[in-house]
């Protein structure tokens, strides 16, 4: 009997993962999904439960909380404030982050270390970043409010933009820019006619990711917010006193909106990758 | 190219670093230095005295209560990170190995909770674990218990659930991006050489996946150990963590220098844990693309 099986027979005898293993794996994965989706489902269910108290059993279906929500100026004001803060932070991070990614396009001495240093605010616990920025703002006499929050958010969104845009830039050559300039375009024109269109999908992805992180942020914001609350800061206060299911209602709506936005951005990125493969 | 041109290019090239260096100094180095400086100041009823002193450190490091709280924080966060990484890694392994066709939808489903309000995800656990919560109602209805149990909420256990819950998507992602790069033929080769499932796991998957475990641990741990929201919502008195104390120092206590000291000591002790985790899981095998 030969010690080594012929290759074809070896292939047949090979242990393929059996159906049993696949079913076992599926059961474990399903169990993790139950764990992961239980909280959002509970949140959504209690947004339509006819009771101000979040305890079982259910008292019946109602849209009262949604009706109240649309008339609740406190929550809606905080929501609008949050949207403006996050939009400002995202725009700031996109402009500065894209600039930095372009500077990093051709590596220079120390560029890797610098890229690491930019990421530090993201790797600090939010509490530490919040405290250190609060002390800095106080010391330079910057008032706490809209701009202090937007700036703090820009600081931790920026690394995402630099990374996502940098990855995208790395996939095409700096010669492109050179070619545009050889054809007579100035650096600004070369950027907007050649580089910018290629970067667009990365910018969309970075903007969406940055926006969701900023919009949901509490740990840092809590320290630098000042008087007016963003939505998470307001809800954080309400979770201790004055909670009612309108808060379930607003976050259920926001969850639906952001999941749709994320799936949409996945499609943009996937479509873009497909196009890149075809060209 | 002339020597002058070359030198000019070098100078220009290093000029590119200036805006980035300025940013890093302004928003990373200076704030952290200020944090250090602040920790050496003192405060009496909210009035800051900028005379350098190490009293805050003495107060923090001399307090058994604070040190115990710090240890418990690091322990809880580490344990949560280990649990989240175990679940995330196992799941990522099952997906890439046994359900490769479903890997994209499953991965998207794992990370979707990250786009749902963090506060509400944690708060929902309070609703689930509470005295009249989902779990108690279920157990009562099935008849396993006849009195609602209060053991689920306001304990280290409930804090762990919250932290693990928040950590799983990060741990899964870290494991997934690494394990997904192991070509199927490596498993086949291990199988051809006679290795069973467990042997294949320890000789192939583990050495390649170890840094992913380190990365996953680090991500979950960083999110967990400075967290003051989860312990406050789910932990009650028994599940308190050091972050709550920092918030207190900046809030009710109005002793910012003490708060800065606490934040700094928390940061440094956390970095030590991360450093150890990274060392332990350093990669002996580098997978070529």
Helix content of chain B: over 70%
- What sort of overall outline of chain A do the alpha carbons produce when their principal axes are compared? globular
Q: On the 0-100 scale, what is the average pLDDT of chain B?
A: 87
Residue-averaged pLDDT of chain A, rounded? Answer: 85
- Biggest β-sheet strands, sense, barrel of chain A: none
Helix and strand element order of chain B: HHEEHHHHHHHHHHH
Order of the strands making up the biggest sheet of chain B? 1-2
Which helices and strands occur, and which strands form pairs?
The complex is a heterodimer of chains A (279) and B (289).
Chain A: H1 7-13, H2 19-47, H3 64-71, H4 73-103, H5 111-123, H6 126-139, H7 146-170, H8 175-182, H9 187-216, H10 221-224, H11 231-240, H12 246-278
Helix pairs in contact in A: 2-12, 3-12, 4-7, 4-9, 5-7, 7-9, 8-9, 9-12
Chain B: H1 3-15, H2 17-39, E1 42-44, E2 47-49, H3 55-61, H4 64-98, H5 103-111, H6 118-129, H7 134-142, H8 156-179, H9 184-192, H10 197-225, H11 229-235, H12 242-250, H13 256-280
Antiparallel strand pairs in B: 1-2
Helix pairs in contact in B: 2-13, 4-8, 4-10, 6-8, 6-11, 8-10, 8-11, 10-13, 12-13
Summed up, what is this model?
The complex is a heterodimer of chains A (279) and B (289). Chain A has 279 residues and is mostly helical.
What can you tell me about this protein's structure?
The complex is a heterodimer of chains A (279) and B (289). Chain A is an all-alpha fold and 279 residues long. Chain A is 76% helix and 0% strand. Chain A has twelve helices and no strands. Chain A has helices spanning 7-13, 19-47, 64-71, 73-103, 111-123, 126-139, 146-170, 175-182, 187-216, 221-224, 231-240, 246-278. In chain A, helix 3 (64-71) crosses helix 12, helix 5 crosses helix 7 and helix 8 crosses helix 9 (187-216). The longest helix of chain A has 33 residues, at 246-278. Chain B is mainly α and 289 residues long. Chain B is 73% helix and 2% strand. Chain B is built from 13 helices and two strands. Chain B has helices spanning 3-15, 17-39, 55-61, 64-98, 103-111, 118-129, 134-142, 156-179, 184-192, 197-225, 229-235, 242-250, 256-280; strands at residues 42-44, 47-49. Chain B has a two-stranded antiparallel ribbon with strand order 1-2. In chain B, a hairpin with a 2-residue loop joins strand 1 and strand 2. In chain B, helix 4 (64-98) crosses helix 10 and helix 10 (197-225) runs antiparallel to helix 13. The longest helix of chain B has 35 residues, at 64-98. Chain B is flat and about 70 Å long. Chain B starts with a helix and ends in a 9-residue tail after the last helix. The mean pLDDT of chain B is 87.
């Amino acid at each position: 009997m030969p010690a080594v099986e012929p290759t074809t027979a070896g292939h047949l005898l090979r242990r393929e993962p059996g159906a049993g293993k696949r079913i076992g794996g599926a059961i474990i994965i399903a169990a993790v999904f139950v764990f992961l989706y239980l909280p959002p489902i509970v949140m959504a269910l209690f947004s339509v439960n006819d009771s101000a108290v979040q305890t079982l059993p259910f008292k019946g279906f109602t849209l009262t909380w949604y009706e109240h929500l649309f008339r609740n100026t406190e929550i809606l004001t905080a929501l609008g404030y949050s949207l403006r803060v996050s939009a400002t932070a995202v725009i700031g991070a996109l402009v500065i982050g894209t600039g930095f990614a372009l500077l990093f396009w051709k590596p220079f001495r120390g560029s890797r270390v610098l890229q690491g240093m930019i990421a530090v605010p993201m790797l600090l616990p939010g509490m530490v970043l919040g405290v250190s920025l609060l002390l800095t703002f106080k010391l330079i006499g910057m008032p706490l409010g809209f701009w202090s929050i937007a700036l703090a958010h820009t600081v931790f969104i920026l690394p995402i933009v630099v990374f996502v845009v940098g990855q995208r830039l790395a996939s095409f050559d700096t010669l492109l820019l050179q070619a545009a300039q050889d054809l007579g375009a100035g650096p600004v024109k070369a950027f907007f006619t050649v580089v910018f269109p290629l970067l667009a999908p990365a910018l969309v992805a970075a903007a969406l990711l940055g926006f969701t992180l900023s919009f949901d942020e509490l740990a840092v914001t809590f320290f630098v917010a000042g008087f007016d609350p963003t939505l998470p800061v307001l809800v954080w206060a309400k979770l201790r006193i004055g909670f009612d299911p309108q808060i379930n209602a607003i976050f259920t709506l926001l969850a639906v909106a952001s999941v749709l936005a994320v799936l949409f951005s996945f499609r943009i990125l996937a479509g873009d990758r497909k196009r890149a493969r075809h060209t | 190219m002339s020597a002058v041109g070359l030198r000019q290019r070098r100078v220009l090239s290093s000029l590119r670093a200036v805006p980035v260096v300025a940013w890093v100094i302004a928003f990373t180095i200076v704030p952290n230095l200020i944090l250090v400086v602040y920790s050496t100041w003192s405060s009496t009823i909210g009035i800051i005295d900028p005379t350098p002193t190490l009293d805050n450190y003495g107060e923090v490091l001399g307090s058994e209560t604070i040190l115990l709280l710090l240890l418990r924080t690091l322990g809880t966060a580490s344990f949560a990170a280990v649990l989240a990484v175990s679940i995330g890694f196992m799941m990522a392994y099952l997906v890439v190995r046994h359900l490769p066709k479903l890997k994209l939808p499953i991965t998207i489903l794992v990370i979707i909770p990250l786009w749902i309000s963090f506060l509400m995800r944690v708060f929902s656990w309070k609703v689930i674990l509470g005295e009249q919560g989902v779990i108690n109602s279920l157990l009562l209805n099935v008849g396993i218990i006849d009195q609602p149990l209060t053991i689920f909420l306001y304990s280290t256990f409930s804090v762990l659930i919250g932290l693990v819950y928040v950590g799983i998507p990060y741990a899964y992602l870290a494991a997934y991006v690494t394990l997904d790069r192991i070509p199927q033929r490596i498993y086949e080769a291990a199988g051809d050489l006679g290795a069973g499932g467990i042997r294949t796991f320890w000789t192939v998957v583990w050495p390649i996946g170890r840094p992913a475990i380190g990365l996953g641990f680090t991500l979950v741990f960083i999110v967990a150990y400075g967290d003051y929201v989860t312990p406050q919502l789910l932990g009650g008195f028994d599940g308190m963590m050091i972050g709550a104390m920092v918030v207190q120092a900046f809030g009710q206590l109005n002793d910012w220098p003490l708060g800065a000291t606490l934040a700094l000591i928390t940061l440094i002790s956390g970095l030590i844990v991360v450093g150890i985790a990274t060392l332990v899981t350093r990669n002996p095998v580098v997978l070529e693309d």
